Protein: Helix-turn-helix domain-containing protein
Amino acid sequence: MNTGKQLSDYEEVLLPKDIMEILHISRSTVYKLLDTGEIKSIRVGNAYRIPKRNLTAFMFPESKDLSSASESTRIDMKKGGSE
Structure:
């Protein structure tokens, strides 16, 4: 399914269905990538939430070093969750 959307058209926090659309992969493949940590995610109850920057880090691992420049502006999304 080609939605005609670009990555910039999506919200900053993605859902598994968004990952399916963006990468053109099956639901089971998305959950395998999330379960193994290949795509870093946040669990909210039983649901996954994926910051867009984590998807781009998965898609473009060579640009991972460039993301350190904005490290101080990142919000620790794990705070406030159950620990």
Observations:
- Residues 71 and 79 are 16 Å apart (CA to CA).
- Confidence is low (pLDDT under 50) at residues 69-83.
